Structure formats: structure tokens, C-alpha cells
Amino acid sequence: MFKEERDYNKFSWEDLGDIDAGRPNLGQSVPVLVYRLFQYTMRDVLITERDVTTANDIFIKAGKLAGEHFCKNVLNTDLEFNEFIAELQKTLKDLKIGILRIEKADLESLEITLTVAEDLDCSGLPISEETVCDYDEGFIAGILNAYTGKEFHVKEVDCWATGDRVCRFSVRILQANKKCKEMDKKSCLTSAKGSQIS
Amino acid sequence: MQGNGQKVLFDVSERISNLLKGKIPEKIQVSDYQDEAEKQFVEIVNQLIESSSEVHRFIVPLSQGELHSFVPKRSNVFSSPFKELHARLLHLTWQAERIAEGDYTQRVDFMGDFSTAINSMVAKLDEREQELKGTNSQLEARVRERTAELSGEVAVRKRAEDELKAMNKKLEETIRRLELSNRELQDVAYVAAHDLKTPLHGIIKLADWLSTDYQDKFDEQGTEQVKMLVDRAARMSKLVDGVLKYCSIRHFHRKMERVDLSLLLAKVIDRIGSPQHVKIKVECELPVIFYNRNNITEVFYQLLSNAVAHLDKENCMVNIGCHDQADYWEFSVSDNGCGIEEKYFAKIFKIFQTLSNSNQCEGVGIGLSIVSKIVETYGGRIWVESKIGCGSTFFFTIPRQRETFLNGKSEVVKDTAQENLCPETS
Fold first, then answer.
1. Residues of chain B under the 70 pLDDT cut
2. Which residues pair with A114 in a beta bridge?
């Protein structure tokens, strides 16, 4: 099921398996370094086997797929936007993914600025001149896509790796629905939730 | 050091000294140096100056609460703690806005004392809102209960009101019928009295002829009886005239006009023709009023006639008074005659009620009832004050209406009596 040739995504939440049953002694958690070891070795190989652009693209797409399933299976998409954000913030903290903080959220234009502190992907990395949280960009876009039914473009503008202490992401909608624009922010989000992924 | 080591050290130490004093120095001119190592050293120092300058430009407005001003470049590592502070302040601001909107699901994570203070504040607000919602629910429940109770009370009250309305309607109908019946009765009385006039007139004439043409034929008893016949017929004529006058009050011509009461009273007094020993005096200046002349004449004529008829002293006095009571006039006619017992105060205004023996007095018991009817028709009031042996005072009021004239000045006053006036039928 994991290894057949195909040109479409087949991932489902059940593919993650029954961790409690499978790890009765070691449990749910692993050190961050294990996660990073996996991610950065994967990135290294992808860059060498393919190229940087392809590697980045794969991380973004994988993050988006993960975000969509994460939203669908872990979060409550029936909540109003602010409540949804509060739940997302708490869930990311509980799962030790990072500390989410919204700086700005314009619900009419669907433009959001948010930061993730102590980010799982990058906090503590050596400083370079590169943002490295491509997977996070996809992950955030996937969550918002699953919640609103809209496609979002997420760009990391500040990163621990570039010398900042928090990762800052700029979010904007890719295809602004004309009808949606005319609606007020609440009904806009409510209607968007109705067309989310199943 | 191959270049101008002294100069570079001087320039750099001066810049660093300024930076340490919190000042932003000017950059060092790289072109002043030829040596590559010195150039590289100066460029690094210039980067330090540039970074410090950016941090300064960023942190000063931030310290003043300006969250949307200049932000340093991403490559400025010096600014990263301040940018983190900036990010947290932006987040706190966003959280505060949500809380202000009543969203108590927000929590501030890992921001030390800020988190503790804000999270406990939000929790308290949430708790209080829940309490308020609980109280509100209780109040709404009470309002619903009370509304239900009130609905019951309102229904009962409405039933009572409906019953009252029905009773009022019945009462109004009864009053209407009574008024109709009363009017019919008055019409019958008026017609009967009117029709009696002609035969009565004939009887009076015949009795008069009998007493004159056959006076030598009657013995003493016959003469006495014929005289009695003439007197009784005359009295009956007065009664019929009185009834006609009483019944025709509503038939009176209702032409309203300016009536100068001074002139009117003079004519009335003249018409009464009182004896020498009777002095009729007007005590005050009388107004000019806007009323039906015949009605007002009748009122004063009857009151003065009544006063004169009951005078029993050598020096008899009848006084006429008038008081302006703002909304109405109050007139009085007083005499020093025999007076009336209090128990008769109401009775004397009823028709055919006279306190004198019909043989002793000319009165037929209708004059005061005519006065009463006229005054009440205009919305006024009539009453008497009296003491046996000392005399009586009759008071009556009439509303000031339309226009009254006093001392040549005119003033506009309300017309309250118009509604009470009967339509002209004569």
C-alpha cells in the first residue's frame, strides 16, 4: 500500500497506524533530533538526487498533504475562525510542534500574518541566509485549505535559520472567490467550511 | 599592519565609542583606505553601524507602542530578539482585540508574566460571562413566567373591560332612550300647554264677562264664587304659560349676541315695576357677555321677580352682584325677604314646587325651575343660601364663552357651553 506506483496521493490518517499498540513501552514521543535527522537527511538526499527546487517543492507538497489530513482528523472545522485558531494554537503546543501566535488576520481579504516560535523544523539551527521551513509553509496552507476550502499561498519571511528567533509566515489566498468577497467575514468562512475536503 | 593602522584604529574606536554611548555614528569612508585588510575591517564595522542603526530605528518606535513602523532586514541578526518582542506584542494586540470582541477561547502561551496575567484575566472574563449568561437565563425564565402570569391577568382585565364596555354601551343606550323619552314628554307637555291656551283664554273671558255683565244678578256667595273662578282661571293661565316657557327652553332661539348686562338689568328692573319701598341695586359693574339675550333676560327676570315677591319688610332691598371667576361668571341676587328653610334649598328649583300657599302668593312654582334649566343648559350651576327672616341669596354661574367685554376691553375666552346648546328649532 505504500510502495505501489501511482500518480495521485493515497495517504490516509490510518496509515499512521496504532501507535499505542505498536509502541506500548516507548510511547508516542520521540526527540526532536530524530525528527530533524529524518527531515534533513531526506532533504539532503533529495537535493543531491534531484535539485533544491524539487526538494523544496516536495517538502511543501508533503506539508500541505499533512496539514489537510491533520486539520480533518485532529481539529474541529465547525468552529468560527478565532475559535479555530485558538484550538490550532493549543493543539500545536500540545503536540510540541511549535508555539503559534497570530499577529494579524484580515478575514475579509483572508490575509494572515502568524509566527511559530520554538518551531519543530528550525529553532536552534545554525544561522544561514536561508529560510528552511518549507514543510511548515505547506502544513499551514493545508490546514487553512481544509478549513476554508480555499487555496492559500504561505511564505516564510523570517526564520530561525536566517537569524530570527521566531518563524514568521505571510499567508494570502490564492484564488479569491468573488462571491466570497462580497459576503461578510463570518458567512464567508462558514460557507467556505462547507466545501472543505472530505 | 601595512596600511595606515593608526587612522583605522582611531576611526573604528571612535565609532565603537559612540555606539557604546547609544549614539549612531556615521559610517567610515571605505575609500579612505587602500589596504584590503583595512577595507574589509572598515566594511565590517560599517555593517555593525548599519545593524545598530536599524535596531535603533526599530526599537525606539516599538518602545512607544508603534507596532507597524520600520522592521530591520532579515540579515540583521542583532535585531532578532527585538523582532521576537515585536512578534509577541503583535500577537498580544491581536489577542486583546479578540478578547474585546468577546472571544474568550484565546490564550497566550509561553510569555511569562504576560501569559499568566492575560490568561487569568480571560478566564475570569469567561467565568463572569458564564455567570452573566446563567443569570440572564434565570431572568429570561422569570420574564417568561411573569409574562405568562401577566397574560392571564391581561385576559381577565380584558374580559372585565369588555364587560364594562358592554355595560357602558347599555347605559348609553338607556340614557339615549331616556333623553328621547324626556324630549317626547316635553314635546307633549309643550303641545298640551299650547293647545290649552285657547280654551283657557275663552274661559277667562267668559268668567270676566260673567262677573261684569251679571254682577247685579249674583248674591254675595255667587259674586264670591265668580271671583274665585276668575282668579283660578288666571292662575291656571300663568301655570300654562310657565309650562310653555319651561318646555320651550330648548326651543328658544339660540342666537348668540353681545349682551350688555347693565342695559339688560335696567330693562328687567323696569319691567318688574317694583313698589317704592323696594330698592333694587346693582352692586358692581356688569360685564358685556356673549349669550342669548332672551335666556339671560329670563334668568334675571325670574330671580328678581322671585326676590321681590318674597320681600316682607318696610325697607326692602334686592342686590345684584357679579364676580369674575376666570373660567366663568358668578352672579348673585340677594334679598332681605322672609328667607327659606335649608330643607327646601333643592326643592325650590323643581318645577311646580312653591313654598307659598297658592292663595297667598302669586307664584306658581315654575320660575326658579326655568332659571335652573337655562343655567344648566349653558353648563352653569345654580344654588341658594338663605336664613329665615334675614333673606336669601341666589347664585348662578355661566361659563365665559367666546368673547366677553368689560370696560370697553375685549378678550377671547374659551367656548365651553356651545356643546350644551340645543339646536335651534323654533
1. 1-4, 250-254, 353-364, 401-426
2. A102, A169
Q: Is A96 on the interface with B (CB under 8 A)?
A: no
Q: Which of residues 234-253 of B touch A (CB under 8 A)?
A: none
Q: What is the pLDDT of residue A54?
A: 96
Residue A60 makes CB contacts below 8 A (sequence gap 6+) with: A134, A135, A137, A138, A141
Nearest chain A residue to B83 by CA distance is: A164
CB contact (8 A) between residue B80 and residue A118: no
Question: How far is residue B254 from each of residues B149, B190, B229, B297, measured CA to CA in Å?
Answer: 57, 18, 38, 13
Please calculate the CA angle B184-B188-B189 and round it to the nearest 5 degrees.
115
Q: What is the pLDDT of residue B195?
A: 81
CB spacing of A101 vs B91 below 8 angstroms? yes
Q: Which three cell numbers mark B148?
A: 405568562
- Tracing cell 327652553 back to the chain, one arrives at B249
Q: What are the grid coordinates assigned to A163, written together? A: 537569524
pLDDT of amino acid B240: 83
59-98 of B, contacting A, C-beta below 8 A: 74-77, 80-81, 83-84, 87-88, 90-91, 94-95, 98
Q: What is the pLDDT of residue A198?
A: 33
Question: Residue B414 has what pLDDT?
Answer: 42
| B169 min Cα distance to partner chain A (Å) | 58
Return d(Cα B24, Cα B299) in angstroms, integer: 113
DSSP-assigned letter for residue B290: E
Instruction: Tell me whether residues B87 and A104 touch, CB distance under 8 A.
Output: no
pTM of the full structure: 0.53
Contact A66, A74 (CB under 8 A): no
| ipTM of the prediction | 0.70
Check if A124 contacts B (Cβ < 8 Å). no
Cα dihedral value B202, B204, B209, B212, nearest 10: -170
Residues of chain A with pLDDT under 70: 1, 175-198
